[in-house]
Amino acid sequence: MRSPFLREATIEEARKELHADRNAIDSLDLGAGSQWPSGTVADIARSALKRPRHAQAIAGLCKHLGTNQALELGTCLGLTTAYISKNASAVTTIEGNPALEKRARLVWKQLNITNITSLTGNFDDVIPTLNSQQYDVIFIDGNHRGAALKRYIDLLFPQLSEYGVIICDDIHWSADMEQAWEELISEQRWTLKVDFYEWGLLTANPRLAPEFHCIRF
């Protein structure tokens, strides 16, 4: 069953609370960009959370697709997960840092979200344990190494639904990520490819003619 509609303002109120949270969170080296200067919740919220308009755009995409199942790699503090959960019947999210996952759970409890399944561990270890569920949206927001991004996509492609999309975060975060993105969009398996600068979209939807677009907002 689809979760109750969550007002955007409610999620953004949770963001404000995270920005004010001075509790420490232990850092783990789980990939490029996974470290932060002092390790407080507020530091992570300022540096790692997606800006509201981008989180809302991803949620809007989920709504447009009529998303049944969504998968997220990289929970962080759980705000984008919350936005996705508004427009998906169920969300599975994977986070490598148990302390972050624990804090994200508090956010979802505060927002009365009940359609999120949270898993903890290294993506390479957890992905093979996923069942044969088909995902309409796969959001990859973790590790930030080009080789890892391509590996995750190859591992998960068999579980992408026929008309589903893969969202790749931070495609211009580094030269390495940009190179991986360029290699991905050159692959023949994709039809529509969109560069939103902060993130990219890939789909193998057979109803679409091959196209590539750049959109900034």
What does this entry look like structurally?
The structure is a single chain. The protein has 217 residues and is α/β, with parallel strands linked by helices. The protein has one domain: Vaccinia Virus protein VP39 (Rossmann fold), CATH 3.40.50.150. 37% of the residues lie in helices and 21% in strands. It is built from 8 helices and 8 strands, in the order H-H-H-E-H-E-H-E-H-E-H-E-H-E-E-E. It has helices at residues 8-19, 41-48, 52-65, 79-86, 98-110, 123-126, 146-156, 175-185; strands at residues 69-73, 90-95, 116-120, 135-140, 160-169, 192-195, 199-203, 211-214. Strands 3-2-1-4-5-7-6-8 form an 8-stranded mixed beta sheet, with helices on both faces. It is globular. Residues 1-6 have low confidence and may be disordered.
How would you briefly describe this protein structure?
With 217 residues, this protein is an alpha/beta fold.
Radius of gyration: 16 Å
Number of domains: 1
- What percent of residues adopt helix (DSSP H or I)? 25-40%
Number of E-state strands: 8
Broad structural category: alpha/beta
Fold topology:
Layout lengths: L7 H12 L21 H8 L3 H14 L3 E5 L5 H8 L3 E6 L2 H13 L5 E5 L2 H4 L8 E6 L5 H11 L3 E10 L5 H11 L6 E4 L3 E5 L7 E4 L3
Parallel strand pairs: 1-2, 1-4, 2-3, 4-5, 6-8
Antiparallel strand pairs: 5-7, 6-7
Helix pairs in contact: 3-4, 7-8
